[in-house]
Amino acid sequence: MSLNFRFAIVSDLHIALPHTIWDHPSRFHLVEVSIPAFESVLEHLTQLDLDFVLLPGDLTQHGEPENHAWLQQRLAQLPFPAYVVPGNHDVPVVIADKQSIAFADFPHYYRKFGYENPHKLYYTTQLLSGVRLIGLNSNNFNEQGQQIGRLDSEQLNWLEEVLAASKNELVLVMIHHNVVEHLPNQSCHPMANRYMLQNAKELVQLLQRYGVNLVFTGHLHVQDVAHRGGVYDITTGSLVSYPHPYRVLEYHSDNFGRQWLQILSHRVESVPDFPDLQQLSKQWMGDRSFPFLMKLLTLPPLNLPTQQAQELAPSLRDFWATIADGDGLLDFPQFPQKLRRYMQKYGAISAGGTPTFIDNNSSILLEKN
């Protein structure tokens, strides 16, 4: 049986009504554009013949009830179904405080967007005939009350039961934290590991066992497609940080069992108060990049002396913007050779060392289930 459908991904919206905007001189996020950027995206998406849209977390700035309420009401107006999962910003506390909703309250806001059972933070639903979505909650809290990215054993057991019962369906998985590394040694890098699911290996092995190819993530705020053992982790950048991207994807299969996923990426070029959003946003990110770059250069594995890091950091002003944009090539010939080679690894380079541009616009031939 052939299967064809089209859907969109809009990630890390960080919706913030004007009176809720949290300001900090070093933040990378242009939350000021969250609502107008989202409206711009919806204006485009409603012109397409979409079957559904996925929103892989960080829906709100900091889990504010009024921002969740605004988004819930806006999604209800769409001409196609929308499905969400929580990001770390959506459920930052276990018990509600003056700023954020309680961890357990999230599903109650999104009962029309996947959470038919408001007592669980994960769900499964049939999107189309033969197509199933599994929405996972990757947010957890350790014994010290710190928020971490991890699937507990109860959710993993539930997931295996769902996968075992879905053998004749195409399964799509949506989760906030990354499950395949998008950056060099991401799972053990002191700055990047928090964007990875702590037990990603266990989840990937489970997905491999049941022939699941496609996982859609957010959190990292970059455009990147990574794969491991037949599992593709397609992460989408944030709508409130450069390059303000979103994706439109088309899935095709035929009677011979061949399956393709075509990925097209778009950017929000402007909003009313930011007519040149792309240029301003890239500059905004570069202006705030120095503390981030100092950490990158002085922490493991580079461990550069502070003085050397201070001398090199200005040359890396657009380093993160290039990564966030996807399909970038990074080379700094003026750097010491070891450091130059390390920075090159952050670019769109395959394991064989050749440029591979699949992060934004590509067509992937998927393995058979």
Describe how the helices and strands are arranged.
Blueprint: E1 4-9, H1 34-45, E2 52-55, H2 65-75, E3 82-84, H3 106-109, E4 123-128, E5 131-135, E6 139-141, E7 147-149, H4 153-164, E8 170-174, H5 200-209, E9 214-217, E10 224-228, E11 231-235, E12 245-253, E13 259-267, H6 277-287, H7 290-298, H8 306-312, H9 319-325, H10 337-344, E14 362-366
Parallel strand pairs: 1-2, 2-3, 5-8, 8-9, 9-11
Antiparallel strand pairs: 1-12, 4-5, 6-7, 10-11, 12-13, 13-14
Query: What is the CATH class designation of the largest domain?
Result: Alpha Beta
Shape: globular
N/C terminus separation:
14 Å
**Helix count from the secondary structure assignment:** 10
| Total strand segments | 14
Category from helices, strands and their pairing? alpha/beta
Task: Say what the CATH topology of the largest domain is.
Answer: Purple Acid Phosphatase, chain A, domain 2
Task: Give the averaged pLDDT, no decimals.
Answer: 96
What's the number of domains? 2
Largest sheet: 6 strands, mixed
Which residues form runs of ≥5 with pLDDT under 50? Answer: none
CATH superfamily of the largest domain: Metallo-dependent phosphatases
Give the H and E element order: EHEHEHEEEEHEHEEEEEHHHHHE
**Which percent range describes the beta-strand content?**
15-25%
- Sheet with most strands: strand arrangement: 3-2-1-12-13-14
Indicate the CATH architecture of the largest domain. Answer: 4-Layer Sandwich
Family: Belongs to the cyclic nucleotide phosphodiesterase class-III family.
Protein name: Metallophosphoesterase
InterPro entries: Calcineurin-like_PHP (IPR004843), CNP_phosphodiesterase-III (IPR050884), Metallo-depent_PP-like (IPR029052), Pesterase_cyn (IPR011239)
Organism: Calothrix parietina FACHB-288
